[in-house]
Amino acid sequence: MRLSLIRFEPTLSRWVQLGVLLGALFAVAACQQSIKPEQMKKNLEVVTPDGAGPFPVVIMYQGTGGRTAREPRWAGWLRGMGIASAIVDNAGIRNRDKNPTGSMYTEDGAIAWDLLKADDRIDINRFALMGFSRGGGMALEAGDHFGGKRSVPDLVFAFYPGGFGRASCNSDHPKSTEVHIFFGDKDDAAMADDLW
Questions:
Q1: Are 55 and 80 in contact (CB under 8 A)?
Q2: Which residues, in sequence order, are CB contacts of 7 under 8 Å at separation 6+?
Q3: Which of 9, 23, 126, 138 has its CA 20 to 30 A from that of 81?
Q4: What is the spatial distance between Cα 128 and Cα 179, in angstroms, rounded to a whole number?
Q5: Nearest-angstrom CA–CA distance, 59 and 114
Q6: Any domain includes 10
Q7: Range of 62's domain?
Q8: How many domains does the chain have?
Q9: Which tens digits make up the pLDDT trace of 64-95?
Q10: What is this structure's pTM?
Q11: Alpha carbons 115 and 110: distance in angstroms, whole number
């Protein structure tokens, strides 16, 4: 093993560089904070079809833009099909309006799943994860948070997943989970042909 030593001379520019580095580290740490169930409860909207249930559920991840009208529209459509929705306000949990570049919130779906276990209207063993843009990437990468005491998702729907660079469209879900990644011809985020 080769060990290299870097000589650090505390010039003004080095202090500025160190300050920028420390600031970046603190920003990344703030983006990756742990969420407590009480915080999730305040930032989770559950939409169910009429009737007693139990209903299968789709747990939704927001994109970079935070809360939009998109999630409630999808929840209404799913409700009409007899499927419940759990809309996670990933940005609101963290006291912000948007999910900035570098933010990671893959665990949010699992924490929502934990809370949904107590809801008799929800069949927590039949569920999917769904996300849009950065949220699509979060849904794809949330696999490590499921299994063991939690069921694994039956399905993952990632709509134009982004926020990780052009070639990041990977899933860490087990083979038993069906993963569907959607891009459209007119998507401005990235063309599917450019990913591979």
A1: no
A2: none
A3: 138
A4: 10
A5: 12
A6: no
A7: 36-194
A8: 1
A9: 777 778 889 999 999 999 999 999 887 776 77
A10: 0.74
A11: 9
